[in-house]
Amino acid sequence: MRTLTGIQPTGTLHIGNYFGAMRPAIEAQDHGECFYFIADYHSMTALFDPAARLRNTADAALDWLACGLDPKRAVFWRQSDIPEVTELTWILGTLVPMGLLERATTYKDKLANGIAPNFGIFAYPVLMAADILLYDTNVVPVGADQKQHLEMTRDMAIKFNQAYGETLVVPEPRIRGEGAAVPGLDGRKMSKSYGNTLEIFGDEKALRKRVMGIVMDSRTPQEPKPDAEKNIAIQLLRLLATPDVASDFENRLRAGGLGYGDLKKALFEHYWNYFAAARVRRAELAANPDHVESVLREGAERARAVASQVLKRARRAGGLQR
Ligand code: ADP
Ligand code: TRP
C-alpha cells in the first residue's frame, strides 16, 4: 500500500500542523510505503518571489526532516525535481471538464476574495491529481479542505481509464478529522490566519512570552475550576506531556490552588522539551545544506523510478507512444 501526500512550502509551521498533519505522516512511515514531497510547483500559483520559494522549500525540508521524516523509510522529494508530473497534468487536463474545475471551492474562494486567477490557480487540482496518479498512489491523507481535490483526482483517474483502458490507480482519500483540531492560544482552532499559533521552531524568549501571554479568566488561584478540562493550557498539555502529568495538572486546577501563571510556566516547559530533540536536529541539518539537498535528490531518483513507469503506461494508453 502506497501513501502519498504533498507538503505546502508555506513558511512557519505550528504545533497544530505538527499534531494534525506531520506526526501522523511520520508515524505512517512504519506502515507501508510513504511518498512525501514538497509542492513547489503548486507554490508558483501564489508566490512570485524566487528567493522566497527556495527559502520556503529548504525550510519545509528542514522542518520535516527535523521532526522525524526519515528518508530511509519514506521517499521524500521536491515536486519540481520530477517535471514528468507536468506532462501528466496536461494529459489529465484534456479529460477534465471545465465545469468541474470551475466548481472547485478553493478556486471559488480565491475569486470571492478578489484574487485575479491565473491559469495555475484554475489548474491547481489537475496538477494535484497528477501528483497523486503519477505514483500509483493508494491512499492520500489530507485535511478536510482538500477533500474535493481528492474527489476530482478520482474522477480524472476514472475518466482516463474509461477513455484509454485501465491504466491509473484510483486512490482513496483519508480525511483528517476536524474534531481533533489543536486549539490555538486564543481558544479557536490553531491557524496561521488567526495569529493564534505556537510555532514548532523559533526563539525561546519570544515563544515563552507568547505562552505566558495566553489570556485566561479572572478567577483567583484558590478558586476550584470545575471546567478545568476546557482550559487551553490543559488541552495543550494533553498533547505535549504524558497523560499522567496532564491529568495531574487538570486535577490541581479543578481542585483550586494552581495559579494560571504556574500552569502556563509548566506548559511552556513541556512544549519546549517536547521539541528539544527536533530543535537540535534542525540546527544540525541547517548547518549542512548540501546533505539536505542530497537527501532530496536521492528521494527524487526513487520517485522518478515509479513516475517514469506510470507515465510510460499513460503515454502508451493515450497513443503518444507504442
Ligand atoms: P493553517 O490553518 O495554519 O493555515 P494549513 O492549512 O497550512 O494551516 O495546514 C496544513 C495542515 O495542517 C492541514 O492540512 C491540517 O491537516 C493541519 N492543521 C492545521 N491546523 C491544524 C490544527 N489547529 N489542528 C490540527 N491540524 C491542523
Ligand atoms: N493541495 C495540498 C494542500 O494544500 C498540497 C498538495 C499538493 C497535495 N499536491 C498534493 C496533497 C498531492 C496531497 C496529494 O495541502
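^ adenosine-5'-diphosphate complex. The chain has a mean pLDDT of 96. The two ends are 29 Å apart (CA to CA).
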